[in-house]
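Researcher: Re-running this chain for the archive, since the previous output was lost when a drive failed. Same request as before.
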Amino acid sequence: MKEAVQKSMRSFARAIIQPVMFMAVSGLIISIAAIMRMEFMPDVVATVGNFFFGIINSGAIGSLSVIFCVGIAAALTKKKTDSAIVAITCFMIFLYANNSWLTLTNRLAEPGEQGLFGTGQNMVMGIQVNDMGVFLGIVIGCMVGFIVNRFGNKKFHKYLTPYEGTKFAYAIAIFSTIGLAIIVTYVWPVINSGVNAAVSIMASSGPFGFFTYGFLNRMLLPVGMHHLLWMPLHFTPMGGTAQIAGETVSGAFNIWLAQLGDISNVTQMNPAIGFLTNFGPLAFPTAIAAAFIKTALPENKAKVKAIVIPAVILAALAGTTEPIEFLFLFAAPVLWLVHAVLFGLSFFLSNILGLRVMVGSIPETIPSLFVPMNLGRAWLIIPIIIVIALLEYFAFKYLIVKLNLPTIGREIEEETTKQSEEISIKGNEDGLAVIVKGLGGVENISEIYNCYSRLRLDVLDDKKVDIDLLKTYPSSGVVDKQKHIQIIIGIGVNELRESLESYVENLRTGKASLPVTETTSGQVVYAPASGEIIPIEEVPDEVFSSKKLGNGFAIMNHDGIICSPITGKVSTIFPTLHAIGIESENGDQVLIHMGIDTVDLGGKPFNVTVAEGQIVKQGDTLARIDSQLIKEAGKDDMIIVVTLENTAGKVIATSEKITPDDIAFEI
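Model: Regenerated structure tokens:
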């Protein structure tokens, strides 16, 4: 039951986001048109602005209900064309059925001085009905999606084939829609009162209500459900209802666009616009990036800049903040909590200071500069950005240093970035193959879809999923929710989803095949020292235990004499002497890491006896280490052996006690 409910919520979440993604384009065009039609503009420019504003505002924003209806129904089913036809037809049937029942029962409201505003009814496509706003489209879209999925494959006798499948589903949808239209005339007024009460409670909460909204907005982001919070506030009566230029407008975003288009007649900006003061794209990414650069190890600063600066630019221009936010979500959750609190604080400050304009990415924010300062107080944008950015920067910097958090650039996890970069330069099909293999093969993939920035993947058997392999695909993170995997991509996720769908389809039809790779090389790895062997999962360092660098093992309570575990060439000796890399004759890369966090000791405990490029045989001495000196520094002297970029392999030691003459691991 729980799984079914969760699946339904996920299906609804991904369906409802589809039409919302297109509204951003409409909003941008309307914002530009609203600026063009302002009083100080030349008549020709104002005329063009009026032309586009009227068309897009009425045709797109004013038709959100039917757009959501068709978009959701199509997104919920695989028979998208049929579902769209059924949805638009049922939408029209609902309007006429609802109006007819209101008329029949003498409950059709009479327009007052402000038209139908405040009566609970409204004109939709020229028909007076119960004013459900966007909820009408959402409800009918979901209902049609369910009916088509449930009855769309129904088969009849050959003489009745014209009425089977989606046609049968359509017949059921017709009567369901009429029944819904009648029920709504009794139920919706009660629901509408409840919604108004909820909005009133939030409004009466003042700044604290906006703080709660901002805080929850970020806390829900990791599970991808944050749009279920802001979407109703932006586009439905939950975000407020207002009478603007003789029209009833619901939702914070719609109210903002309406007031922007009628700004010469506006005397006070609607408080609901406070839900749009999102400083996420402008203030926070810059502060986060600065904190990461400041706290990175000197040798890693250049690499960190190469990663975070493009993410900051992406957030500022496109409003996509997840690529930089997911750099610390999983590595340091305490930073996420602080981030959520400060995110809520930004809405709190905006409200108490009276900021009443939309703030988001640079394109979203520019129209706010054209609102008279006495109305929107747009001059507050820069001071709030500075205050929030400084708070975020110093909070992150302090916590990272104080708690020694493993954020980007502070550990050898830069090797993980290197792995991703190596995969990213491969052919596109190689990257798609990594995803398919990581999901357990094409036969294990149940569904592929996406939202704004995440590739979302449902699998049949979560035990077949290789999260470590999925993490090698270049992304901002992988969210493991058992049968529901999310890969954080950012801009370009839609193209990736389409490419993956096409690739999987080709695999299933035999038009393509997964590249064959060896999971094991047969290479055996000997113990690097005499001591006690433990699997890499038990190493007290998440970078190693999570197999981010590769599989392997560790030796503890050793004698301090480090021997080569394989025959090969010394490929790398780290400047701080704490790690040595060896490439075997068949190309396997093995890293011998001496101690944990010993990079901080500057090489003092290590006496390396080989040089880069030198050929070594298994059992040759590589180094001697001073375990006492390491322990006095509060470090662990454990010797960790990692088979780089290879999560396969297994420990095959016959006992815990082991010497350099004993085989420890097979790649």
